[in-house]
Amino acid sequence: MSTVAPLDLNGHCLSARWIAGIPHFALADGIVHRLDNGHKSIEAHDGLLAATPASDGKTLLTAGEDGRVCALTPEGEVRELASIGRKWVTALAGGPQGAVAFASGRTAYVRFSDGRLRDFAHPRSVEGVAFAPKGMRIGVARYNGATLHFPAADGTPVELTWDGAHTGITFSPDGNFLVTTMQENALHGWKLADGKHMRMSGYPAKVKSWSWAAKGRWLATSGAPAAIVWPFSGKDGPMGKAPVELGTRADTMVTAVACHPTDEFVAIGFGDGMVLAARIADQKEVLLRRPGKGAVTALDWDGEGRRVAFGSEAGDCGVIDVAG
Cα 313 to chain center, whole Å? Predict the structure, then answer.
């Protein structure tokens, strides 16, 4: 039986993450809370828009309405990495060798570990950024498709086209596929070797949360009354294959998903605050948290796969010990 250690905060939780084994909760007001021998907090921004771990998992990267990109150390210190003036930094990703990608308006930026900043202009606004799992390459989600850049080298970017507004972006862990969320209720993907399209549609709501399974064979997503889990084990990904549906409930939507770090099961958060865990192989479910005050907006497993940090739009956050 799981146990829940609650942390009741005021405000919308944008990100719940484990950093160096410590649970962090980043709220839209710009304050980051952490449970490190007690409840501690620090103001990282005047209005937070994005927070994600650095690739080494030792710092929390943050971006805000104040035009700053920062790193929050395990000791709770805020270190400014970049500032672009009073512009909203709306997308953020950690990459290899300490690189950080972020976006504001029509421009994507890459900050290298030595402090160098390179910018990439686009015709329309940049909605999402992601690093490829191998090499120094970023993907940018934009209107009518995605663009791939090699920040450390000069050259022509790769343009991947599909009509519509693309709002988020992720590479498969093996680097073979690129997937975007769309303004419409769908995902779109490309097989990078040959540019083949993958259309993943039929969602009743927008996909706002996704997570790759440990070996990259599955992509779990929100946006439906169940977690929709697409198969990516074959050479053509989910093309021609039906997804697995986990944790189906008739009266509420899945709002957040997080795959276990080593095993193929998924933590699933719902619009009423409930959290389940479900195994992909046989769809077996375990209740982790009963309904709460607000929709679950953030979920993250710790490195050992024993605890889940969660946050909601109403600020009821906490840690679930799955083993009890």
Answer: 16
